[in-house]
Design brief:
There is one protein chain. The protein is α/β, with parallel strands linked by helices and about 230 residues long. The protein has a domain of about 160 residues: Vaccinia Virus protein VP39 (Rossmann fold). About 45% of the residues lie in helices and about 20% in strands. A 7-stranded mixed sheet has the order 3-2-1-4-5-7-6, sandwiched between helices. Helix 1 packs across helix 4 and helix 1 packs antiparallel against helix 7. The longest helix is centred in the last third of the chain and has 16 residues.
Length: about 230
């Protein structure tokens, strides 16, 4: 628990600004998801962070049950303090079994933290967690197959240097805030042996992984620079 009272609103707002700096086209992604998913009754957001995206999903579909999961204690505390009652916040590892019965599963800027074999396993678990005809939406670093190498996708694109700085500054300010002292210590324990993979699989890699997991159809429906969204049915 935070050591002092937590006011999540400013932290969640600046988080949203940082994420938009990395991926300016995120609002258009939400519109694409809305067109593809139509009227989901149950939604699962993977690696939901402070719950900003899950909150938007709940606002778009007020009658839906929205669940978000994450493992980061700092981000979970912000989500639990800030999301509306329509959003359930669960602490869970993406490498563990997922709850089932969802019409829509989303993961925005999440899977690049995982190694390739864990992404493949996650796709299989997502297929098992979806209802018949349900959709999986993965939005992340996903270069075109024409790029010379995957490493090109990891190099910051023009204009992203400011976003990288803002990201580091956000976490620096969190580390200095007394209300996060214990949570930051817990976070260090969790991620000490979990270095981020920084994996940026190509479009064809993600399509093949989704189809290998048993999805009938898979393809890219949205792109914003180095980032793209795969939809699997």
């Amino acid at each position: 628990m935070p050591s002092t009272a937590l006011d999540s609103a400013p932290w969640r707002a600046t988080w949203d600004e940082v994420m938009t700096g990395f991926v300016p086209g995120l609002p258009s992604l939400e519109d694409v998801i809305a067109c593809a998913a139509r009227d989901p009754r149950r939604i699962l957001d993977l690696g939901g962070g402070p719950g900003v995206f899950a909150e938007r999903l709940a606002a778009r579909w007020p009658s839906a049950q929205v669940t978000m999961i994450d493992i980061d204690p700092v981000l979970l505390a912000l989500a639990r303090d800030g999301v509306p009652p329509a959003v359930s916040v669960l602490e869970a590892d993406l490498c563990d079994a997922l709850p089932a019965g969802f019409d829509l599963i989303t993961a925005v800027m999440t899977v690049h933290y995982l190694r390739p074999e864990r992404i493949r396993a996650l796709y299989r678990r997502c297929r098992q967690a979806l209802t018949l005809g349900g959709l999986l939406v993965i939005a992340d670093l996903m270069p075109d197959d024409g790029l010379p190498s995957v490493m090109d996708a990891l190099n910051p694109a023009p204009g992203e240097a400011a976003a990288e700085l803002a990201w580091a500054q956000w976490w620096g300010e969190v580390a200095e805030a007394p209300e996060f002292a214990q949570l930051m210590a817990d976070r260090a324990d969790i991620f000490r042996h979990r270095p981020p993979a920084n994996f940026a699989g190509s479009v064809s890699w993600h399509v093949a992984a989704a189809r290998s997991a048993g999805f009938r159809e898979a393809g890219v429906v949205w792109r914003d620079g180095r980032h793209a969204a795969l939809v699997a049915v």
